[in-house]
Amino acid sequence: MKSGRRAVSLVEALVALAVFGLITSLIAGVFVLSHRYTRVFQQVSRVQREAAHCMQAFQAELTRGHSQTYQPVPAVNETWFLSSRPLEGQPGLGEFADNGQLLWQKWVGIWRQPDGLVWRSELPLSGGARPFLLVDLDDQPSSLMAFSTLSSRRRLASAVRRFQVSVDSRIVTVELESETSNSGNPSTRYHMTSSFLVP
Known about the structure:
Radius of gyration: 29 Å
Structural class: alpha+beta
Number of domains: 1
Low-confidence stretches: none
Helix content: 25-40%
Strand order of the largest sheet: 1-6-7-8
Largest sheet: 4 strands, antiparallel
Strand content: 25-35%
Shape: rod-shaped
Mean pLDDT: 86
Order of helices and strands: HEEEEHEEEE
Number of helices: 2
Distance between the termini: 104 Å
């Protein structure tokens, strides 16, 4: 009696293996590509998040500064200015004299280190808070060294490649660029510019 089974030829087996190998490599390629795009998306998200976080920190600091005191001009990767915010750790948004004048409290310094970290520190006004006309501008810090050597510094952001602060009348413009990279991916840069009205 004859069996109803048919034997598979060597050619048919090789074709089946080739088709299986092709489908497997296509599926693996899809997974690899999906993983790569996920890493790129995470990198782009991080660079945008770092830029936005840094800009928010700048806004919180710069909008309380005095437009005539921003140094140096132009300020690239470092700046310092007179601020009306109370010293860190003190409550409140600001103080006013009996005649309603805003009292200036301290000098604030912001700078970027070569590793991309952005730091800030502060120096109280000698003699305490006072109206702007009574502040001795000749007594202001002459360089960032007055701030960068303090132990009270606080980190504002990371992954910042460059920032620039420019002042036109009472409008302060901050231009910053952040940069991140994951292993195996080219670096991603994100550029952001924002302007703030200051006293």
